[in-house]
Amino acid sequence: MTSVSRLKSLLEDLENRSDKKVLNTWYEIFSITTIFEVYDHLSHVGKEIDSLEEELIKNKLIDNPDYKNIISSFNGIVQHIHMTQTISQISFMNKENIMKLKISLNSLETLNNAGHLRFKFESDVKEEEFDNFKNSINETIEKIENSDMPDEDKKIFLSIFYDFNKAISLYKINGLNSFWEVIENNICKIKLIDEIENSQENGNYNELKRVLINSLNEVWYWIQIYQKADQTLKVSSKIYGYIKSKVSELTDNIEDVEISE
């Protein structure tokens, strides 16, 4: 996946829902239920648009009017505030502009695939792996919500797993960066949970602690296999070192993966 392929997929999702209301369309695309979540998720779409703009600048293509139109059109789409209108009523979603966007996005994809451009790329997480992870997170959230844990413990665990759930819905837009945001935003809570000693009387807590570490382990595995990026540029060295030391079980024997420290 690249920023180009992600935005191209989003355009197709919108085009396929041209007769639906804008708000309902965002609900469907992101699997969310409130307008507050819509605006939050659209801010992440904005981040991906910014990433593509940075790629165009890096590849000295930002002055091309067709590629400029990609940036302005997608920004216009996500900033559209009339949520009760249909997708087809968004000015940037008229048939002529959709055709122009498709041609421009396809040309960028072709140039990148041919090696003429250098866009950031990460492989897709295997569908079965991703679905299993998604189901595990949903099951864990349900288990926490129905548990008799103390409210403070419940709030801490739920906040982290809710963020994992959000990252799942944003994966199609931001790739594995959505999961890195979970780690960055919750590192203090993760460390707090990890540092509390196990006891036989703390069964629910210990079980959820294991699920949390396993979830981090899975995400770390994906990042090394599918993203192959130097994450020290994204998180502080202390956070990076801590996470790497805690979630190495699945990755110790991976070959041909190098991540600088």
Mean pLDDT: 85
Sum up the overall morphology in one term.
globular
Major sheet description: none
Helix content: 55-70%
Q: Explain this structure to me?
A:
The chain is an all-alpha fold and 261 residues long. It has helices spanning 3-15, 22-30, 35-58, 65-78, 95-113, 127-145, 151-174, 177-195, 203-227, 237-246. Helix content is 67%, strand content 0%. Helix 1 (3-15) crosses helix 3 and helix 7 (151-174) packs antiparallel against helix 8 (177-195). It is globular, with a radius of gyration of 20 Å. The model is unreliable at 249-261 (pLDDT under 50).
Topology:
Elements: H1 3-15, H2 22-30, H3 35-58, H4 65-78, H5 95-113, H6 127-145, H7 151-174, H8 177-195, H9 203-227, H10 237-246
Descriptive terms for the model:
261 residues, mainly alpha, 67% helix
Give a quick rundown of the structure:
The chain contains ten helices and no strands. With 261 residues, it is an all-alpha fold.
